[in-house]
Amino acid sequence: MERSSLSLAPTSPSPDVQRLRDEGYAVSLVAGHLVVSDIPFADADRKVSKGRLMVPIDMVGDRTAAPTRHDAFWSGGAPCDQYGVALSSLITMPLVHDLGNSLSSDHHLCNMPVGREFSDYHELVVAYVALISGHASALDPMATARVRRRTVKAENPLTPFNYVDTATSRAGVGALTSRLEGGRIGIVGLGGSGSYVLDLVAKTPVSHIHLFDGDVFLQHNAFRAPGAATLAEIGARRAKVDHFASVYSRMHRGIVPHKVKLEGVHLRLLDHVDFAFICIDDGVSKRPVIERLERNGTAFVDLGMGLEVTEAGILGSVRVTTSTDSMRSHVRDGHRIPFAAGGAPDAYETNVQVADLNALNAALAVIKWKRLRGFYAAGASEHHCLFSIDGNQLLNADEVDRPASDASATGRQ
Fold first, then answer.
1. pLDDT value for 306
2. Cβ 198 vs Cβ 248: under 8 Å
3. According to the model, what pLDDT value does residue 159 have?
4. Exposed e or buried b for every residue in 366-387, given b needs 16+ CB within 10 A?
5. Into how many domains does the chain fold?
6. Residues 116 and 32 in one domain
7. Which residue range(s) make up the domain with 332?
8. Which stretches of the chain score pLDDT less than 70?
9. Which of 1, 73, 145, 243 could be a cystine partner for 54, CB 3.0 to 4.6 Å?
10. 155 with 188, same domain?
């Protein structure tokens, strides 16, 4: 089944796409590309075949913007002239490229109006179709790309996003991004680091993001969270999970808030997640969460900081500790993750002006998760990482050989 990133409604508000539809072109929006199917072209055997044009699309909300590039992808075989000679003026190179969501190309094309870019996607598509199908018409006068379909093909309505992910198609990493699809992510704690984890994970095509926190969003929280809360949002004194769910539901449909502290019967909520980010600094509260995740065989990343205020500035480290079925012992023995209670509070507990460290901690954790999923290459399989602030160093430990197909470590369904 073809998976996709968003649908164009049959009554698209974009005039250029609507015009293509009205003129009978078979258009759809898949993985951030405007796709035109059933385009007749002349092949190397001087026969008429059908191919597909895929154009990376720029959008503003649910409307197309003016194109900022004039290249396109093609599948179906090399388009040729009526004599079977490949259109070298149009084809830049053969290119087998996975664009994601079961969309792939076999050639890269380039066509540009003289001295300018295309004014809209209608002009772009019509120009490409004319260059390709004109040679097919010389072989078969009945050949046409205007197949008179009356609706724009709808995409998977179960997409997690409220609007098209054009960043992925723009970067050409659709196939890698698809490795992050599906699954249920849990974020335990929505303080500084947890809110930044949410900010990053919400931009991925995971199915659901479960938020766990029993606290209220207050003014000091605004100074170590992504974005800028309004006075009205601060004054509302909503639960953190409700505040952040409201913000990120504007982009991602699968945000699920749980206004609870994970203890006792509430721990069973963790049974519904495939991967977890633990972003709380209370060691006593953290232990039952970790024990439940381990019992379920759920991989997780624990985030932490240890800071100290000195006359020279704040010293300390930012920590990311990972637990998968490949390695659990370093977590269970308490060597890497502190579980003890008591002790004097450190700078992290008293100084809210560490948003940059919160963001770094979250970024390191999310990068680790993406490495486990295969989005980023993983030359090492460290399960513990420390960033030293004063030394500006990353130190890795607890490495283990991990098979590339270790599903328990990736959190895939």
1. 85
2. yes
3. 80
4. bbbbbbbbebeebeebbbbbbb
5. 2
6. yes
7. 182-410
8. 1-13, 149-158, 334, 340-353, 401-413
9. 73
10. no
